[in-house]
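Summary of Year 1 activities. Much of the first year was spent building the evaluation harness for sequence design. The harness presents a backbone, in tokenized form, and records the residue chosen at every position. We chose the following record to illustrate the format because it has been used consistently in internal testing since the harness was completed.
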């Protein structure tokens, strides 16, 4: 399986990254909706590329992000 490691770096990385991951979470919800638009159920939207798919102890599917976050603090 191929995966993408996401890197968030820079002064606005947290702001932009939070919006990006919130959008991805919304896409997961739309893909899981049985009455949702078929556009979100296509093979081209493979969430396994951005997420590591696993199971919880309650045997529920869990999606964990694969991410590297770099926070630089410049104290002058």
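For this record, the design step produced the sequence shown next.
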């Amino acid at each position: 399986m191929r995966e993408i490691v996401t890197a968030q770096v820079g002064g606005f990385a947290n702001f932009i990254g939070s919006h990006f991951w919130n959008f991805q979470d919304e896409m997961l919800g739309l893909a899981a909706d049985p009455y949702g638009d078929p556009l979100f159920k296509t093979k081209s939207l493979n969430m396994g590329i951005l997420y590591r798919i696993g199971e919880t102890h309650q045997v529920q599917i869990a999606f964990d992000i694969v991410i590297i976050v770099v926070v630089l603090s410049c104290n002058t």
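The two ends are 45 Å apart (CA to CA). Quantitative recovery figures across the full test set are reported in Table 2.
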